[in-house]
Amino acid sequence: MAFPEDLLSDNEQVVVHSHPHAKMLIGPVIWLALTVGLGIWLATLAEGAPAPWESVATIAVVVVAVVLISWLFLAPLIRWRTTHFVVTTDRLIAREGVIKRTGIDIPMTRINSVQFEHGLIDRLFGCGTLVIESASDEPLRFDDIPRVERVHTLIYREVNDNPHDDYTGPADGSSRGRGRR
């Protein structure tokens, strides 16, 4: 899904648009499998109950399973899907949330330093934490950024705006951003 063009200023182009790495969905998928498996097992146990209690037990199992799946799987899935990390030629944009939407925009001219961190697990998954130091008091940390080293390099290039080291797209060879040839 592309970042909405109406949120961009004139001549601003998206360089990177991503959601957090899908590794943050591993736990919720495990909870989904456990909930469904346990629900099926409890529903088969309820089949042997006397006539009125069989229906009550089955309904109770289904209701509890739906609540658990909504809380442990659907909520994290929606949170992942509605979290956006966008780097444009002019600014860095982070948006998250469904009911309570939060966001931050950092102009490229205000970024002082860009760092990345990734441990062994992050390296296996190809993601990491991006640390942006701007004019604010504390550095901002963006966790689970896919291909964090590439994003780090692209932000560095956009901050410095050196047209001789700009990233060119692999498919068409076109350059992106301000001051491009």
The shape, in one word, is elongated
Number of E strands:
7
Largest sheet: 4 strands, antiparallel
Strand content is 15-25%
SS content category: alpha+beta
Radius of gyration: 23 Å
- Quick check: average pLDDT? 86
Number of helices: 4
Order of helices and strands: EHHEEEEHEEH
Distance, first to last CA? 28 Å
User: Which spans have pLDDT < 50 for at least 5 consecutive residues?
Assistant: 175-181
How much helicity do the residues have? 25-40%
Side by side, the strands of the main sheet go: 1-2-3-4
Features:
4 helices; 4-stranded antiparallel beta sheet; 3-stranded antiparallel beta sheet; elongated; alpha+beta; 181 residues
Question: Helix and strand layout, with pairings?
Answer:
Blueprint (H helix, E strand, L loop, with lengths): L13 E5 L7 H21 L4 H31 L2 E5 L2 E6 L5 E6 L5 E5 L2 H6 L1 E7 L6 E7 L1 H13 L21
Antiparallel strand pairs: 1-2, 2-3, 3-4, 5-6, 6-7
Helix pairs in contact: 1-2
Describe it for me?
The chain has 181 residues and is an alpha+beta fold. The protein has four helices and seven strands. It has helices spanning 26-46, 51-81, 120-125, 148-160, and strands at 14-18, 84-88, 91-96, 102-107, 113-117, 127-133, 140-146. Strands 1-2-3-4 form a four-stranded antiparallel beta sheet. A three-stranded antiparallel beta sheet has the order 5-6-7. α1 (26-46) packs antiparallel against α2 (51-81). The two termini are 28 Å apart. Mean pLDDT is 86; it is low at 175-181.
